[in-house]
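Quick review question:
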């Protein structure tokens, strides 16, 4: 069996091909006129997809000027966000670096910083990185970490979070 090696030069070609395929798939869907909704549709409210979530870091990121940035926002991850770090040379050399690259792609703002890159995530405190990893997992799993359970003694139903309540705990 042969292995295919992708270099960083091949990354741009793959990303451009994926973007072209996305545009081509979206074009036919936008061309035809929208069909009238079914009779039952007006009674249902259309729910919008929330793609960006705000957070507050436990400690905060301290920039070069000494300013502490605690609030920020993170967007939902795309398939490209999940795949891109796999071909990053830093991740190939050190697989633990994957979360740094991934977080730097999905954090859209951190305080007044709008260009959140891997260097910013590298300089964060470990508790903040653990918080962001947990936050990423929670928003991208759409609540799949919650489970409905029933108490065996009183038969009362309630919901528990299977991901753990402490920072960095899985």
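Suggested answer, residue by residue:
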């Amino acid at each position: 069996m042969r292995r295919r090696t992708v270099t960083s030069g091949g990354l741009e070609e793959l990303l451009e091909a994926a973007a072209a395929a996305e545009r081509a798939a979206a074009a036919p869907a936008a061309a035809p006129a929208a069909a009238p909704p079914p009779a039952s549709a007006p009674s249902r409210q259309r729910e919008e997809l929330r793609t960006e979530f705000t957070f507050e870091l436990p400690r905060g990121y301290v920039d070069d000027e000494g300013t502490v940035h605690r609030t920020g926002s993170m967007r939902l991850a795309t398939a490209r966000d999940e795949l891109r770090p796999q071909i990053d040379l830093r991740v190939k050399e050190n697989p633990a670096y994957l979360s740094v690259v991934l977080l730097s792609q999905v954090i859209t703002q951190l305080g007044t910083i709008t260009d959140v890159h891997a260097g910013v995530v590298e300089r964060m405190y470990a508790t903040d990185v653990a918080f962001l990893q947990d936050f990423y997992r929670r928003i991208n799993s759409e609540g799949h970490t919650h489970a409905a359970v029933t108490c065996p003694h009183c038969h009362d139903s309630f919901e528990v979070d299977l991901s753990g309540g402490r920072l960095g705990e899985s």
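Why it works: The longest helix spans residues 8-30. The beta strands are 52-62, 68-75, 107-110, 146-150, 157-161.
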